[in-house]
Amino acid sequence: MNTNEPTSATTPERILQRLDWNVIRRLDGMLQGDYRSLLYGYGVDFADLREYQPEDDIRYIDWNVTARMNTPYVRKYVEDREITAWFLLDLSPSIDFGTVQNLKRTMLIDFVTTLSRILTRHGNRVGAIFYGDHIERTIPARGGKIQVLRITNDLLKHPRLAHSSFTNLKNLIEGGMNAIKRRSLVFVISDFISAQGWERPLSLLNQRHEVLAVRLFDPREIQLPDIGPVIMEDAETGEQLYVDTHDKKFRQRFEAAAHQREAQLAQSFKLAGVDMLPLSTEDDLVRAIVRFAALREQRRR
User: Fold this and answer.
1) Buried b / exposed e across 25-40, counting CB within 10 Å, b at 16+?
2) Domains of the chain
3) pLDDT tens-digit profile of 89-125?
4) Which residues fall within 8 angstroms of residue 218, CB to CB, at 6 or more apart?
C-alpha cells in the first residue's frame, strides 16, 4: 500500500475546505481582509524620489541623486496590482519530524495552501519549487483555485525520503534564483537544518525579490523532554545515537546548543535583510501569521 497517497480525509479539497473555514475566515476577521502588511510587494514602476529615512530599504537608494544632493535619496515605486509569489519548499527528511498529529511537513502544507488561497483569490499567481535532496519539481506560477489544489495535491503525493545526504539549502535557493525571472514575492519554507553556505544565496535572492523566510521547528528540537533512555536518529543521514534524557546535564547541553543555533539563524536572516516567521508544529497558524504581519507593518513605519 502506498502510504503517500492521500486518504479521503486528506485530499486537497478537504484540506482547502478546512483551511477556508478554520484559518482564512479567521485571518480575514483579524486582519480585516487587508493583507498588505504580509504580502506587500515592491512594484517595478518608478514613482518619485524622497529623502532617505532610517527605516528605508537601502536597496532603493538612488546613488546618482544622492551624490548630487549630498544627502541620501530613495526611489519610490508604485506597488504592483498583481503579485507573483513563489514557494521554495524544503521537503528533506527532517521536515517529517514531530508528533503523529503535528509534523513540520503538515504545518508546511497548511501554510502553503493558506497563502496560495489568499493570494490567488485576489487575482495573484503562485508557483512552487520542491526540493528533497535536489530540486525535484517546479510548478509554474498560475492563478486560480485549481492552482492551489494542484500545489496541495503535489505536496500530499510527494514521496518522503527515508535518508539522504545532508540537506544543502544553497541548491534550493540558487535554483529559485535561476527559475524566477520576474520580480516576485518569495517564501523560503524550511527548518533550515542544512549545510552551511545558504546565507549568501539568500541575500542575493533578496536583492532581486522580496523574500520571506518561514522557519519550521518542533519544540522538542530546542528543549529535550525527560523521557528516559532513547535512541535518537538523524533524519537527514540515518545516524543513530543512544542517549539518556534523564541526564539533566545532557539536556542542558542539548538546549544550550539549540539556543546557539537559534541565535546564529537569527543573525543570518538579519544580515540577509530577510524577515523570518518562526512556525512551530504546536502553533496556531492564524495567530502566528497575524503576529508576523504586525511585525512587518511595524518595521515599515
Assistant:
1) ebbeeebeeebebbbb
2) 8-37+82-218+264-300 (3.40.50.410), 44-78 (no CATH)
3) 999 988 887 766 788 999 999 999 999 999 999 889 9
4) 97, 98, 99, 102, 104, 280, 281, 282
pLDDT, tens only, 3-21: 444 544 589 999 999 999 9
Q: Does residue 193 contact residue 94 with C-beta atoms inside 8 Å?
A: yes
- How far is it, in rounded angstroms, from Cα 80 to Cα 60? 16
Residue from 274, 174, 170, 257 nearest 214 by CA: 274
Note the pTM of the prediction, 2 decimals: 0.79
Do residues 74 and 49 lie in contact, with contact meaning Cβ atoms separated by under 8 Å?
Answer: yes
